[in-house]
Amino acid sequence: MPPLLEVKGLGKSFTIHHLNKIMQAVQNIEFTLNEGEFIGIVGKSGSGKSTVLKSIYRTYLPEKGEVLYRSDKFGIVDLAQLSEREVLYLRKHEIGYVSQFLNVMPRTTARELVEQSVIEMGKPEEEARQAAIDALSHFELDPELWDSYPNTFSGGQKLRLNIACAIVKNPRLLLLDEPTASLDDASKLKVREVIERLKADGTTLIGIFHDLEFMDGLCDKVYDLQEKTLV
């Protein structure tokens, strides 16, 4: 069976207009990810780790190379060439993204955010309600906060909610951009438990973690951005 994801010659640069300068963020990134595997991306600060994930998720549009993804709906596609509509479909149904930041609609409670993540996949409301209860309980978000607006939450609470919204979809491919950055050790353990469960259920993952101990025993492969090597 073909790989779930194959990144070939990926390159992305940014224009700094006020300096009239082009900055190369990443270039010649290449790795292959089979279904059910977990790749950890490592590299010094500023080396482009987040740029790689955002290029796969299409937050950024890559300028060079291919990002070949084996979709349930579309077959093998180049994520760098898909239409916005196709990208939005994949984000709703197949590809999840978790960052250390939470961007939410105003006047939407924590519980509603998690429920909406399930409903937008076409699942019934009752299933969405139960999934939200299970996810919020697992991450030990105080039940008194479930019907509150997340803009009042601490950084760690927002991060746990962000992860809950992603994992209730059981995505085929999950991108993790420093998801444990502001979490205490107990919360990190909860994240690890969820990652292990998703992996056991067949989810394929790419993750960036500053905490290398957290990655130990989780990743099947590690891609070093500086060395351009996959170990």
Please specify the SSE layout and strand pairing.
Layout: E1 5-16, E2 21-33, E3 38-42, H1 49-57, E4 64-71, E5 75-78, H2 84-93, E6 95-99, H3 110-119, H4 125-138, H5 155-167, E7 173-177, H6 185-200, E8 204-208, H7 212-215, E9 221-224, E10 229-230
Parallel strand pairs: 3-8, 3-9, 6-7, 7-8
Antiparallel strand pairs: 1-2, 1-4, 4-5, 9-10
Helix pairs in contact: 3-4, 3-5, 5-6
Task: List the main descriptive attributes of the protein structure presented here.
10 strands, about 230 residues, about 35% helix, four-stranded antiparallel β-sheet, alpha/beta, globular, about 25% strand, Rossmann fold, 7 helices
Give a summary of the structure in a few sentences.
The chain has a single domain, classed as Rossmann fold (3-Layer(aba) Sandwich), CATH 3.40.50.300. It is about 35% helix and about 25% strand. The chain is built from 7 helices and 10 strands.
Describe what this molecule looks like in 3D.
The protein is of the alpha/beta class. The protein has one domain: P-loop containing nucleotide triphosphate hydrolases (Rossmann fold, 3-Layer(aba) Sandwich). It is 33% helix and 27% strand. It contains 7 helices and 10 strands. It has helices at 49-57, 84-93, 110-119, 125-138, 155-167, 185-200, 212-215; strands at 5-16, 21-33, 38-42, 64-71, 75-78, 95-99, 173-177, 204-208, 221-224, 229-230. The strands form 2 sheets. Strands 6-7-8-3-9-10 form a 6-stranded mixed beta sheet, with helices on both faces. A hairpin with a 4-residue loop joins β9 (221-224) and β10 (229-230). α3 (110-119) packs across α4 (125-138), α3 runs parallel beside α5 (155-167) and α5 (155-167) runs parallel beside α6. The longest helix is centred in the last third of the chain and has 16 residues, at 185-200. The two termini are 22 Å apart. The mean pLDDT is 90. One of its GO terms (cellular component) is plasma membrane. It comes from Cytobacillus depressus.
